[in-house]
Amino acid sequence: MKLLVTGGAGYVGSVVTALLLEAGHEVTVLDVLSAGHSDAVPDGASFVEGDVHGVGRVLDPSFDAVLHFAGRSLVGESVQDPGPYWHTNVGGTLALVEAMREHGVGRLVFSSTAAVYGDPPSQAPLRESDPAAPTNPYGAGKLAVDHLLAGWARAHGLGAVSLRYFNVAGAHGGFGERHDPETHLIPNLLKVASGEVEHASVHGTDYPTPDGTAVRDYLHVRDLADAHVRALERCVPGRHRVLNLGSGGGYSVREVLAAVRRITGHPVPVVDGPRRPGDPAVLVAANDRAREELGWRPSRGLDTIVADAWGFVRGRQEEGTAP
Ligand SMILES: NC(=O)c1ccc[n+]([C@@H]2O[C@H](COP(=O)([O-])OP(=O)(O)OC[C@H]3O[C@@H](n4cnc5c(N)ncnc54)[C@H](O)[C@@H]3O)[C@@H](O)[C@H]2O)c1
Ligand SMILES: O=c1ccn([C@@H]2O[C@H](COP(=O)(O)OP(=O)(O)O[C@H]3O[C@H](CO)[C@@H](O)[C@H](O)[C@H]3O)[C@@H](O)[C@H]2O)c(=O)[nH]1
To answer: For position 266, what pLDDT does the model report?
Structure first.
């Protein structure tokens, strides 16, 4: 297929692009480089530097589908300054589906998020049918796009899939997380192991969980990327589907810390701090729908996630490209 990947110079988009190229697809990446890196666009993809609002200049009827990763994704920033989040994540997606309609490009895979579920009342694994009640503009905008795509599929025959990622981590094929600022747990712990910073923070030790720290569902980015390839192949015209992407199991911050210490062999000192505003106690995916509809099964556990992310950090250190 001939594919457009928006945000393909970012973390998830670069890994998915690499996998799409491996599968024999032709890929054009559109990225404004506000958070991504031009050297993260895999060799073999065409690269256009530009904003998703201007996607009409890139798209033409020869494209078969779009994978849409471009967006802003700092939850705290979205609370402080919501305007850019609605502009990029919602307005940018509207511009994209309008251009797709104009050029007759009928399939879309979208990066949604577990943040649409907000702070769930129960700690049970979350199903797609559970109420969506986002607690910040980032999650609200992603949920708005899920609704936008449902209406677009009904009205204009788009075949779309919203993939609600839980916590993506790990690295694949030389591509990994290079966010600045970095807010995610595993790369922050690895910054300590690599000597870039002296200690990490544990955000909250008084949650109603077995060890008092928050529990999340960590999914290897390679497993996540595999789900995208499968979702793309299964886009049905006129239908919008929502699928959770998680491993189906959870680890606390302290359990992740123990894995990082074991795998890196570094003591990784941490300082216990207060809760980060808006963080729920437990977010774990029920992933049955993705398993059934995509024939997908995540196969890489926490140790592989940490080992691969660590390999990526070490590789960049050895090349002299990090920090
Ligand atoms: N990483 C996670 O754990 C996670 C979890 C849930 C959902 N998501 C979603 O997945 C997607 C990818 O996440 P990521 O971690 O790879 O983020 P990222 O920041 O690494 O990548 C996003 C890319 O989009 C680009 N971009 C931003 N605004 C743009 C615009 N207006 N036009 C064109 N390009 C633009 C950035 O330069 C960047 O390269 C995002 O939409 C994010 O909200 C990520
Ligand atoms: O230095 C750190 C960073 C994080 N945490 C904690 O670790 C857990 C995981 O945090 P993080 O890696 O930042 O992920 P989340 O806040 O769970 O959010 C991610 O996962 C969401 C879906 O679950 C996505 O919507 C977001 O984009 C993505 O950042 C949380 O309990 C944090 O409070 C720490 O204790 N110390």
So the answer is: 97
Q: What is the pLDDT of residue 322?
A: 64
DSSP state of 127: P
User: For residue 59, how far is the Cα from the chain centroid?
Assistant: 23
**pLDDT confidence of residue 172:** 96
Q: Is 42 in the pocket of ligand 1 (CB under 6 A)?
A: no
Q: What is the pLDDT of residue 47?
A: 98
* Ligand (nearest to CA of 118): 2
Ranges of residues in the chain with a pLDDT under 70 are 322-323
The answer to whether the CB of 185 is under 6 A from ligand 2 is: yes
Half-sphere CA count of 12, side-chain side, radius 13 A = 30
CA separation, residue 80 to residues 91, 101, 285, 308 (Å): 19, 34, 28, 33
Q: Residue 292 is encoded by which pair of tokens?
A: 């059934």
Its ipTM equals 0.97
pLDDT of residue 163: 98
> 70 CA distance to ligand 1 centroid (A)?
5
Q: Which helix (H) or strand (E) holds 97?
A: helix 92-103
**Using a 6 Å cutoff on CB, does residue 52 contact ligand 1?**
yes
Packing angle of the helix pair 253-264, 302-319 (nearest 10 deg): 50
Ligand 1 centre distance from Cα of residue 211 (Å): 31
Q: Which ligand 2 atom lies nearest to the CA of residue 275?
A: 33
Ligand 1 midpoint to CA 22 (Å): 22
User: What six digits make up the tokens of 253?
Assistant: 């911050």
> pTM score > 0.90 for this model?
yes
Q: What is the pLDDT of residue 323?
A: 55
Give the ligand with the smallest distance to the CA of 136. Answer: 2
Among the bound ligands, the one closest to the CA of 70 = 1
Instruction: Decide: 71 in ligand 1 pocket, CB within 6 A.
Output: yes
Cα-based angle 74, 186, 275 (whole degrees, multiple of 5): 60
What whole-number distance in Å separates Cα of residue 306 and Cα of residue 92?
A: 33
